Every structure is written in structure tokens, then in C-alpha cells.
């Protein structure tokens, strides 16, 4: 899923747009430049806590980060997914990684509980 969405590429684009080095962003995100480099190359999975730390280091609201990922992929959390396997209606097929993203995105949205 990480390579499909190019999460690392999106983070790298943001870092370069801001003119920040790997070392600067890694330090603010409490990681090391080698780890951040692997994340940017999609060679290492990105945990939710690490993603939040990187968003903070890049002055990026997590909600906007997830929206950018959705636009890259072309699917939106609001799309009809029927059951999580796309068995009916919407035709949106979700893997277990996608379900995590949908769940994470839903938690970021303002509460309507």
C-alpha cells in the first residue's frame, strides 16, 4: 500500500518545497535521517505515530496530508464501499491497509458521534 500511494514521495515533495534537509525534518520528527530517507523511498512502513510526527515537522495538518493521499489515489473516504471488499454497489476495493487508512481518516475528521 505504501508504494501504491507513494506516501514517501508526498512527504519528500513537502520537505523539498519547504527547503528543509532530511536532517532538519528527521530531528523535528524524533527520528534519524536514514530512517526518513527510507520512508521517503517507500522502503519502510510508516506508522501512524511516525506519520503524525512527520506532519508536525513539516507543518502539515494530518487531515490535509490524508486528503492529498486520497487525491493521489483517486478514491475518497466518502465513496460507497459496501462491505470492505467492494462486494456490492461502490466497487471500491479495500485491502487491510486501506481499512487502516479509512479508520485513521475517520478519526481525524471532526466528531459526529
Order of helices and strands: HHHHHHH
Q: What's the helix count?
A: 7
Question: CATH H level: which superfamily?
Answer: lambda repressor-like DNA-binding domains
How many angstroms separate the termini? 29 Å
Taking the sheet with the most strands, its summary is:
none
CATH class: Mainly Alpha
Taking pLDDT < 50 over at least 5 consecutive residues as the criterion, the unreliable ranges are 75-92, 109-113
Q: Give the overall form.
A: globular
Number of beta strands: 0
Helix content: 55-70%
Structure write-up:
The longest helix is centred in the last third of the chain and has 13 residues, at 96-108. The protein has a single domain (2-108), classed as Orthogonal Bundle (434 Repressor (Amino-terminal Domain)), CATH 1.10.260.40. The two termini are 29 Å apart. Helices cover 58% and strands 0% of the residues. Helix 3 crosses helix 5. The chain has helices at residues 2-5, 7-17, 22-28, 33-40, 48-57, 62-73, 96-108. The protein is globular and about 30 Å long. It has 113 residues and is mainly alpha-helical. It contains 7 helices and no strands.
